[in-house]
Amino acid sequence: MLTLFSPAKVNLFLRVVGRRPDGYHDLSSLFQTISLGDTLSFQLAETDSLTCTDKSLPVDGTNLVMKAVELFRRKTGLRFGVKIHLDKKIPSQAGLGGGSSNAATTLWALNRLLGDCVAVSELQAWSAEIGSDIPFFFSQGTAYCTGRGEVVEDVGMLGAVPLTIVKPPIGLPTPAVYARLRTMAPAVHRTAPREDLELFLRGKPHYFNDLEAPAFAQEPTLAALKEALKRSGYKTVLMTGSGSAFFCIGKGTATHLYQANAVYVNRPTNQWY
Ligand code: C5P
Predict the structure, then answer these.
(1) Which CATH superfamily is domain 162-263 in?
(2) What's the pLDDT at 254?
């Protein structure tokens, strides 16, 4: 049995650079893994099975964990079955990358259980076929991501910065937020995409997310929630990914909503998180 942690992520900044002919959007975003996460356990078995503590999640082939199992089988040609249990802690439809992290963790685990036959860089490249955010999790946990998110560049670690995750009951499906974005005027930026990263690494961070405007247009209560969180004292309050969760840095007052304290974490070389 192999038991692994599967961290959530936040986007410290997220710029939508433009729409692509394939329907996706080019991004420029700084991704960071955090100590809020799920736990997955894996055991080779006769047949595949997935169980999950959250009964509202599908455990069939539509779950990214099972998509990762199928991907690994197809790419390696290996024959195996695997019994997987997912202890779910990361809220869904939150922009926290829970499903993507679970898929990356599954690829890592299968490679370990089946003799480390695949290079991590290869697992990372394969993973882009089943989701744009999955390759990031094969970085060291702080990475500048471009393309549709799958072009991953490790950057220096930012340390164990404490943050609070707040997630309202409403969730947002990623395609709906991007669809709304396409109906709106593009965000105006004074910097070039890479300057956002340089400023961040020089200790002059500008936290922003171009997906806030379409998410807030889709669900106006999110704008009100952001204002309320800022008024409660947090220095930085930013929606992560396509929402609907926010991360807050600084000190604020507890809300009646789902709330979790976390810190930035990084992946040690040659180990999982
Ligand atoms: O790649 P993934 O399956 O996570 O993407 C989900 C959806 O999010 C896509 O179908 C697309 O609508 C949108 N998306 C996008 N541009 C990206 C990433 C995702 O438009 N860079």
Answers:
(1) GHMP kinase, C-terminal domain (3.30.70.890)
(2) 84
Q: Which segments in the chain show pLDDT lower than 50?
A: none
Percent above pLDDT 70 for the chain: 100
Best mutation site among 16, 92, 132 for ligand 1, i.e. most ligand atoms within 8 A of its Cβ?
132
pLDDT of residue 249: 98
Distance 145 CA to ligand 1 centre (A): 14
The dihedral formed by the CA atoms of 167, 173, 178 and 182, expressed in degrees to the nearest 10: -110
For residue 16, give the ligand 1 atom closest to its CA: 21
* Candidate CATH numbers 3.30.70.20, 3.30.70.560, 3.30.230.10, 2.50.20.10; the one for domain 2-154: 3.30.230.10
Using CB atoms within 10 A of its CB, is residue 169 exposed (0-12), middle (13-18) or buried (19+)? exposed
The pLDDT assigned to 119 comes to: 98
- Residues serving a catalytic function are 9, 133
